[in-house]
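Supplementary Methods, section 5.1.

A reviewer requested that the exact input to the structure prediction be made available. We therefore reproduce it here, unchanged from the version used in the analyses.
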Amino acid sequence: MYSSVVLICMLLYIFAADGLGAPSGNCTAGWYCTGGSYMAQPTTTANQTNLPDCTCPLANYTGGQCWPGTYCPAGATYPVNCDPGKYCMQSGLTAPEGDCDAGYYCNASSTRPDPLGNVCPAGYYCEAGSGTPTPCPAGTMSNTGGNTNSSNCLQCTPGRWNIVKALVHIRC
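The structure derived from this sequence is encoded token-by-token as follows.
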């Protein structure tokens, strides 16, 4: 009988043949093994079900290639959501592909460097690699979206002020 620590540890490994007393190795980077896998790269026809489409009991599937919006380091038991500020466009990634483009922000699981619907809003700026928009500093404002750095935030015009970050002009 295995201890719970050993069983958890064994989820990270594959068993490539019958009668083994120890795992054969880690699941390949870019792939994940949920347990019971007999391949380093579980494939649809041999040893896995595509989890996002899976309607079967979890015990029936053993892993697969990481899908867009995720990545899998070696020995992954489940895909990791792409990091905020990064994007993961391809399947089978071992790490995020790169930084989000300036003027955009990338939430976790972004599949593009310029995600639709995530243009930096007015009153904020988004440098390359932004996970969330950064508000324009107090005393500045911006009426446009897609700002790429704090220099896009302009000083408030005479007769107006802005004490709260990110707001558009507020009249005195």
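The chain has two domains: 1-81, 99-172. These observations are discussed further in the main text.
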